[in-house]
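Hey,
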Amino acid sequence: MNRNYSVITGFMGKLKDRFIDYQPPRDMEEMVEMASRIKGCKALEVVYPQNFTDPVKTRELLNRYGLEVSTVNLNVKGEEIWRFGSFSSSDPKARRAAIEALKASMDAAAAFGCNMVTTAMLGDGSDYPFELDYSRAFKQAAESITEAAEYRPDVKISLEYKMSEPRVHCLFNNAGKMAAFCGAVGRDNVGITLDVGHALQCGEIPADSAAFLDAVGRLFYIHVNDNYRNWDWDLLPGTVNLWDYVEFLVYLNRTGYDGWITADVFPGRHDPVETMTKTFEWMDFLGELADRFDQNDLFQRMDRNRSFEMLDYMRDTIFSAGGKSHDRY
């Protein structure tokens, strides 16, 4: 499987959590220059409008450093106007601002030639019971995304789901609900960004989520990171959930996914260039483990419903140097 790696511009600059500020603030050229030193990085996921507003100047900057654009990331979480939601907000002005920002980011994506926008509607949701009219919010979010999708059918809109943060209860919080939402929108250019850490956090099996989203034709884009399933810690992929990641890579092979794989890893206390380089080293390592399985043999064994035989086969394939016999039954 050919893996095309990119990084998010925001992770090259200043970061913060609830307690600590990490990394100094950096302008766009500084972030691009840093990204150009990341081994394996071919492209940037450029954040609009926080990190850029002019796609022509940004394209010229990226060309100087030999980088492509994987997608435009529309950030509808941090602005005051979207405090109580963006595409599903009860405030018509906030919804209109979100729709127009999405249209502008779609124009930028077309100018870059990547023809894809990803956005996470994480400010859409609630913190307390009876705080949100879920029926209205779902309906108006669908109307908002539909308008944008019809504006530029040549540009894909990839929607990212998450269980919580910044809202305690995000409106779009799992793969199934997001897929149903895409079905309600009913446009071929609307799909899903699968963030592996978000899948883990909400109790999904990433391989299952990838297979499902591929089966319904909505797997558009991928973010990789890892966590302990208790929070979206954005750790190096596979460093915590090794088996889940190997299985996930097996299914990316099986589905034939050939889109971008973007590092959504929080540098925090570590150097961003080293963090992203290690992210791609781990992804290559995990990919090599997944590639050890013969696809036909692997799925034929699954169909035999012999769980312990399958576990032996997994263990021996991954860890045996000389290749023990996998047929113990």
